[in-house]
């Protein structure tokens, strides 16, 4: 039994991409140059209001920043949440208030925001990072800046004036002392200067200078960002993963070496032996895949994954699913898979790798509705009881949720 989705149509023009096909966008724009898309989302309505965003910024555990261009202490002051009502009252009392509120990972808390990821799944799901939402009154901005990742900037309400500059390398001059990459010097590229209305969207590739300024008192912008680990993060993480599994007996060897001319010299032959040791341990496609799947599914905010209490038992899960129950992926969870042999896959979920039947791994890592059909996704080596145990473990750790539990939580909040 297979759950593989039908092949995606990559050649049909899409309003989401300004009339380009997926193939054309990836070939000509992705990670290369910006794209303005008028009416990317027709008749767009914001998935949450400004006061709801401010409410999130006041909660513990939610990453929120307040950027003030003329702060109480200095220009370009950044404050970190949680905030309180007094903070927003102070801002409202200022006549020349130029500020922006930034709230990260809103998709982890608001299902309607999380749903905005779906139109972007022409890109790998494991590349999706989070959705940040910013709010600013007229004149508010975070300055001309750079990002190290791809981002789609969707105007949710109000208007924002965007100006683009050129690409910048590591030598870009950045204002010191704040955790934003605000440029000391910004020059607008002729013709790349627009005001975006609700439903309009701007794609910005990594390292492209951009500057957005609110043109209304209700400006809200949704930033759909993508994970892009740096080389130092990749090397460090992969080395740690390998180091935990390499045997102590695997060491530098120089059997059959030639006599040395100078006992104090690090000669070429010695360096080549070290190089071969490194390459032989690093160049392992199987280990690389196992590490990368775990690395790219690590949740951004671990506290979002709440263990289920009381723990669900396997027979309770079977009864629930056979009674037309549905499982739901936690908003903060990440799923991916890599197919192996004999009908099995590694299911990567929230930083772990778990052996699973191929159709089960595909289903969990998709947007497919999760029903009792999951119990039939078995192999000769992974029978129904193994599948039930796997799903129960994912529920008890918080990666999956019973839909009825989710409904109970929503009812309690109301």
TrEMBL record:
Its cofactor is Fe(2+). InterPro entries: JmjC_dom, NO66-like, ROXA-like_wH. It is an enzyme of class 1 (oxidoreductase). GO terms for molecular function: oxidoreductase activity. It comes from the Bacteria. The keyword Oxidoreductase applies. It holds the Pfam family WHD_ROXA. Residues 112-243 form the JmjC domain. Keywords: Dioxygenase, Iron, Metal-binding, Oxidoreductase. Its EC number is 1.14.11.47. The keyword Metal-binding applies. PANTHER family: MINA53 MYC INDUCED NUCLEAR ANTIGEN (PTHR13096), RIBOSOMAL OXYGENASE 1 (PTHR13096:SF8). This is Cupin domain-containing protein. The lineage of its organism: Bacteria, Pseudomonadati, Pseudomonadota, Gammaproteobacteria, Oceanospirillales.
């Amino acid at each position: 039994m297979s759950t593989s989705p039908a092949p995606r149509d990559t050649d049909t023009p899409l309003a989401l991409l300004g009339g380009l096909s997926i193939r054309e966008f990836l070939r000509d724009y992705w990670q290369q140059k910006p794209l303005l898309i008028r009416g990317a989302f027709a008749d767009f309505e914001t998935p949450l209001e400004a006061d709801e965003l401010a409410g999130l910024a006041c909660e513990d555990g939610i990453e929120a920043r307040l950027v003030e261009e003329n702060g109480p202490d200095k220009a370009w002051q950044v404050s970190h949440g949680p905030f309180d009502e007094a903070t927003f009252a102070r801002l409202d009392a200022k006549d020349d208030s130029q500020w922006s509120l930034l709230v990260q990972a809103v998709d982890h808390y608001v299902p309607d925001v999380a749903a905005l990821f779906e139109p972007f799944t022409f890109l790998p799901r494991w590349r999706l990072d989070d959705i940040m939402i910013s709010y600013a009154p007229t004149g508010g901005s975070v300055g001309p800046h750079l990002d190290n990742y791809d981002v789609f900037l969707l105007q949710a309400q109000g208007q924002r004036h965007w100006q683009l500059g050129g690409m910048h390398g590591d030598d870009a001059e950045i204002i010191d002392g704040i955790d934003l990459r605000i440029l000391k010097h910004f020059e607008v590229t002729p013709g790349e200067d627009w005001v975006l209305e609700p439903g309009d969207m701007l794609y910005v590739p990594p390292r492209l200078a951009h500057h957005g300024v609110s043109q209304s008192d209700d400006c809200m912008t949704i930033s759909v960002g993508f994970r892009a680990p740096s080389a130092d993060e990749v090397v460090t993480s992969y080395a740690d993963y390998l180091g935990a599994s390499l045997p102590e007996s695997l060491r530098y060897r120089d059997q059959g070496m030639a006599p040395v001319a100078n006992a104090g010299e690090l000669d070429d032959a010695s360096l080549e032996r070290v190089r071969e040791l490194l390459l032989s341990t690093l160049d392992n496609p199987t280990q690389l895949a196992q590490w990368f799947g775990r690395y790219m599914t690590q949740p951004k905010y671990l506290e979002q994954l709440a263990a289920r209490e009381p723990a669900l038992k396997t027979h309770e899960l079977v009864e629930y699913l056979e009674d037309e129950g549905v499982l739901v992926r936690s908003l903060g969870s990440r799923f991916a898979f890599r197919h192996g042999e004999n009908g099995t896959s590694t299911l990567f979920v929230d930083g772990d790798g778990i052996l699973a039947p191929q159709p089960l791994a595909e289903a969990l890592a998709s947007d497919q509705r999760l029903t009792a059909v999951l119990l039939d996704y078995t192999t000769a080596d992974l029978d129904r009881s193994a599948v039930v145990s796997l799903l129960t473990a994912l529920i008890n750790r918080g990666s999956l949720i019973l839909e009825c539990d989710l409904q109970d939580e929503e009812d309690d909040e109301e």
